[in-house]
Design a protein that fits this description.
alpha/beta; Beta-Lactamase; five-stranded antiparallel sheet
Length: 685
């Protein structure tokens, strides 16, 4: 018996593949199927064949390829049942375009879907030439993805339509196979329908299981959770919320919110038009904190209810945890000691700055207390209950700074933690971040920091999600940022973003009246306030220039407390000159001594150098030894002459004299003057 054959002609390649697969499964065991498409160019003219056309729309285009003796059958098509389950996941009342190549195929398919009970979707016909198509987010198409309008956000492709059972039976009849093979084909169709039913049943069971799981999850949450649709109907209400409201379980979903809530003020708050808001209310179970927000895509309002007293306790616990991690500002303005007008003025400005949320730049030499002021500003601000995080750019390697500040996603780089890491900016959200030594960051990081200041948002390393942050930035530096801008190592736009508010901290050498109060404070801190400091010690400490500022003074006090004998600090307990910080060589070269010596310059330099060598060797020196040394100099000086020179030098602040064993000591100003005039001594420091 010769093999029966049919010719399948379609418009597109995709339709050809789908229909061939269907016919092969149904009649391929006993019918040869030759298939071609107009899109791929038909190979030639067919004669004496049974021709199956995929749709009436291709009748005219395929006519040249149909020769004598051919029987033409136009297939009736129906929805592709294999992918129909995709439509079940669309929410009820979803508006979706149904897109196909012509009005007949669109309306026919929509009618089929409605007859099948897929009626939870609002179908909007869409085909080439159709006007006034509404811009909706979803579209359904039987394989015609290219025809979907560009404004559609999500496309559900259910695949090309299939040949219906009546057309298949007609093909068998034309091939004189209906009596022989009709029952076999019918059984295959019934098996397909049964398989589809099983698939839909499994999907339905999975959906029910998921819904039950989500309900258990929602009921297990400690907070009350409420969802309300655009018509003020409750769509979600977990068990904890029904307890808070004093309602019976199962009597809330599907009801109008205003009928359920006895508190009219709370109902009005939940249904308000604002995007996001938090409020405090009293309910049947006590005080609650209600946070509401709007899900635009779902046109749904979601509100969470938290027990107010539990929230306060959690906040306290959170503060304790921050304290353990060191994320707490430890100092207040009371910790900033001093009685000088400059320090009082600086504190007054800082207190006013603290009341704003604006970015602050603190400039000052090393040791002037920049972190102390940053901490005090935070504690006097509206963010005092939030975290305070400090990062020192000079202490972090360049390759770590970015990931520490902004965090990173899992797999962002080799060695990245599983799950990623939250950055300091995110951790500081709601509080303050202190960026110390801001002048040490790279230009690349300066660009990222500028974006944070401008947009109040960050992106983790290796991530693609924008994360908003609510954080106040306080930056500090001991560098001249304006010179760095001129040199091209600091961005001018970042400088102005940082310097919205500004504080310049005064150096200790410009407010020496604060030295005594600071000394008393440091001794009290160390628990040694009973120790007596001799007046000549205080006088000599007043003579130093303190280029290391308050930090250097504290180190000096700690040193003297450690080495003193008994309960008295004497002149012998002052550290050697090499202990004290000096100006950098660069500063010595560019900054001239402000006040010239009143005595003969050569004699003054001779006395200063002799005292310098004696101090450096730890040996005492006085008028008698200086007179002896001058005997070997080109201009011998008597003790009386040296006495006068020493008086002038001390008056000018270049030396400090003592009646004790140490004798004459050079002050910082004296060392600076000597080294500025005798640079050959710099290498001996």
């Amino acid at each position: 018996m010769p093999v029966k054959e049919i010719i399948l002609l379609t418009g597109t390649k995709e339709t050809r593949k789908t229909l061939v697969k269907q016919l092969e499964e149904v009649i391929g065991d006993f019918v040869r199927i030759h298939h071609e498409s107009l899109e791929e160019n038909i190979s030639g003219v067919f004669s004496n064949k049974l021709i199956i056309l995929s749709s009436p729309e291709i009748t005219e285009e395929t006519a040249p390829y149909i020769g004598v003796g051919c029987k033409v059958l136009v297939a009736k098509r129906t929805v592709n049942f294999e992918h129909i389950d995709k439509l079940l996941f669309l929410a009820s009342k979803t508006k979706a375009l149904y897109v196909n190549d012509g009005p007949d195929t669109v309306y026919e398919s929509v009618e089929t879907l409605l007859q099948l009970g897929i009626n939870h979707i609002e179908y909007i016909p869409c085909y080439p030439g159709k006007k006034n198509i509404p811009e909706v987010e979803f579209a359904i198409t039987p394989g015609e993805v290219d025809l979907v309008p560009p404004f559609v956000k999500e496309v559900v492709n259910i695949g090309p339509r299939l040949i219906d059972i009546t057309t298949v039976m007609t093909i068998l009849q034309e091939l004189d196979l209906l009596k022989q093979k009709g029952d076999i084909v019918s059984d295959k169709y019934i098996r397909k329908i049964i398989d589809l039913s099983k698939k839909l049943s499994i999907t339905s069971r999975q959906s029910d299981q998921l819904n039950r799981h989500l309900k258990h999850v929602l009921d297990g949450v400690n907070d009350g959770i409420l969802a309300v649709n655009s018509k003020a109907m409750i769509t979600v209400c977990n068990e904890n919320l029904t307890n808070m409201l004093g309602l019976s379980s199962g009597k809330t979903v599907g009801r109008n919110l205003q009928d359920v809530l006895r508190n009219a003020e709370l109902a009005s708050f939940i249904l308000t038009d604002s995007e996001e808001e938090t409020g405090w209310f009293s309910l049947h179970s006590g005080d609650v904190l209600v946070h509401r927000f709007h899900l635009k895509t779902e046109d749904t309002i979601v509100a969470t209810f938290q027990n107010a007293h539990e929230t306060i306790e959690l906040e306290k616990s959170y503060r304790r945890e921050l304290l353990k991690k060191g994320y707490i500002a430890k100092f207040t303005f009371q910790d900033i000691k001093g009685v000088s007008s400059s320090i009082e003025k600086t504190k007054e400005i800082a207190r006013k700055i603290a009341k704003t949320n604006l970015t602050v730049l603190i400039e000052g030499e090393s040791g002037t207390g920049k972190e102390l002021y940053a901490s005090a500003i935070h504690n006097a601000s509206l963010r005092q209950e939030g975290p305070f995080l400090a990062v020192n750019f000079s202490a972090l390697p360049e390759d770590l700074v970015e990931s520490e500040l902004f965090g990173y996603e899992e797999g962002a780089f080799t060695g990245a933690k599983k799950g990623g890491k939250i950055g300091l900016f995110e951790q500081a959200s709601g509080g303050t971040i202190f960026l110390d030594e801001i002048g040490d960051i790279s230009l690349k990081l300066q660009a990222r920091l500028l974006r944070v200041l401008q947009e109040k948002e960050i992106m983790r390393v290796g991530g693609n999600k924008i994360i908003p942050v609510d954080v106040r930035v306080i930056a500090a530096t001991n560098k001249d940022l304006l010179k760095m801008i001129e040199a091209g190592t600091f961005r001018e736009d970042l400088y102005h973003r940082l310097k919205i508010l500004y504080i310049r901290l005064p150096e200790l050498r410009t407010r020496k009246e604060d030295i005594h109060p600071l000394i008393r404070h440091f001794m009290f801190q160390s628990g040694r306030s009973q120790i007596e400091i001799k007046p000549d010690v205080l006088e000599q400490l007043m003579c130093y220039q303190w280029y290391g500022n308050v930090r250097e003074l504290k180190n000096t006090i700690d040193y003297m407390l450690a080495v003193c004998d008994g309960n008295v600090i004497t002149i012998d307990d002052i550290p050697n000159e090499s202990f004290f910080q000096r100006k950098s060589r660069e500063n010595r070269e560019v900054q001239p001594i402000a006040e010239e010596l009143p005595a003969d310059r050569e004699e003054a330099l001779f006395i200063l150098e002799a005292a310098f060598h004696a101090n450096d060797a730890g040996q005492p020196i006085g008028r008698k030894k200086l007179a002896e040394k001058s005997a070997h100099w080109r201009r011998p000086l008597s003790e009386q002459q040296i006495r006068k020179r020493l008086a002038l030098l001390e008056e000018s602040g270049y030396i400090a004299t003592s009646r004790g064993r140490t004798g004459i000591k050079l002050t910082r100003l004296g060392v600076d003057y000597l080294l500025a005039n005798r640079p050959d001594l710099i290498g001996k420091l």
